[in-house]
Amino acid sequence: MTDLNKRSLLHTMALSALAATALVACGKKEEAAPAASAPAAAPAAAAKTEPLKIAFAYVGPVGDGGWTFAHDNGRKAIEKEFGDKIVTSFVEKVPESADAERVFRDMVSQGNQLIFGTTFGYMEPMMKVAADHKDVKFEHATGYKTADNLRTYDSRTYEGAYMAGVIAGKMTKTNTLGVVGSIPIPEVIRNINSFTLGAQSVNPNIKTRVVWVGEWFNPPKETEAATSLINGGADVLMQNTDSSAVLQTAEKMGKRAFGWDSDMTTYGPKAHLGSAIINWAPYYTKAVRDALEGKWQGNQGNWWGVKEGAIDMVSVAADVPEETRKRIDEIKAGLKDGSFVIWKGPIVGQDGKEVLAKDQVADDKFLGGVNFYVRGVEGRVPGGDKK
C-alpha cells in the first residue's frame, strides 16, 4: 500500500477505518493513535526487575555459635531488610584452600551478582575469580587485597577484646589470663594484645598465656588448648576461635571465660563473663544497598567497630563489679565519639622496646601489621623471628 493511497483513503472516515484493518492484516506496526493504549500492560510486565542474587561462603558451619553464626545472622538480616529485592544462598564449611576457588566459580555460574567470602584465607581464590568475572561484585572479609570488582570489609574485633580484658583484669584471682589463638595473623595477634592491654589498664600485674591451635574451627583442639591454659594457672580465658569449646571447657573446670563473635551465654552460663560480639548486619545492609542502587565501588576497604554498631560487649555477668560495668559503658561511649583510643602510647613490646611513644595513636596501617606481642604476653608469636 503506497503513501499516495494512504493520503487518498484518509479523506473519508470509512476508508480510514478500512485502511487500519488492512495494515494489521499485512503485519505492519503502524497503528492509529487511539489504539496504542491497548497493549500498555505488556511493557509494565517487562519492566519488572529480577532480584539481586547474593551468595555467602562460610569457613565453618552455620551452627558454630560464633564467627559463622554471626555472619549468617547478617545474611538473615538483609533478607528481612530487602525482601523480594534479593535472593540469598550460602555454602558452609568451605576450606581455605584451592577448593574455595571452585566454590566461588560455582557461585558465579549460578548467577550470583554479589558474593561474600567470610574468612582471610579466601583472599587469593577470590582475587583469581574476580579477575575472570568483572561483571560480578566480590566482598572479602578480613583481607587486604582489592580490585575494581572486589573490596574488603572487617570488624574491629580488637575493641571487643579490649573490653573483655578490662573485665578479665578485675575478675581474675591468679593474675594469669589465657587465650586460645587460631591463626597467627595480625588480626588475631592484635586481639591478644588488646585483651592484655585492657586487663593491664585495671590490673598492671596481668600476664597472658597463649596456646595456638592452627585452625579457626576445631572444637577438640580448642578444648585441649583451654584445658592446657587452665592447668597452667589461667583462670579467665578468651579465644579467637570460632566454636564455643573454650567457654564450655571453662564451665566444666570451674573457671571463667568469654563468648566470642556471638553471644555464647547459653553454652556456659556459670563461666560466662560476657560476649564480645560482631554484628555484621549494618555492613551487609550497606553493601547490598550500594549494589541495588548502583553505588557499589571496588578498590575499597571498610573496617567497622563500636562506632558503626558492628562491635559490642553484651550479656555481662551479674557478678562483674558495678564500677567495671560503668567503665565498659565509658569505653563504648568513647569509641563511638572518638574520645577514647585503645592503641595509644606509651605501649611497649614484649622485648621492652617502645612501639608507640607517649600520646602517639596507632593508625590503621600500624594496626593492620601487628606481628608482635605487647609486654605481659608470654611466649613467642609463631614464626620464630616475630616478637
TrEMBL record:
Pfam family, one: Bmp
Start and end residues of each ABC transporter substrate-binding protein PnrA-like domain: 53-327
Protein name, entry field: BMP family ABC transporter substrate-binding protein
Signal sequence interval, chain numbering: 1-19
Record keyword Signal present: yes
Keywords: Signal
Organism: Ramlibacter aurantiacus
Chloroplast in keyword set: no
UniProt xrefs under CDD domains: PBP1_BMP-like
Entry-linked InterPro entries: ABC-Purine-Binding, PnrA-like, TAT_signal
Highest taxon, organism lineage: Bacteria
GO cellular component, one term: plasma membrane
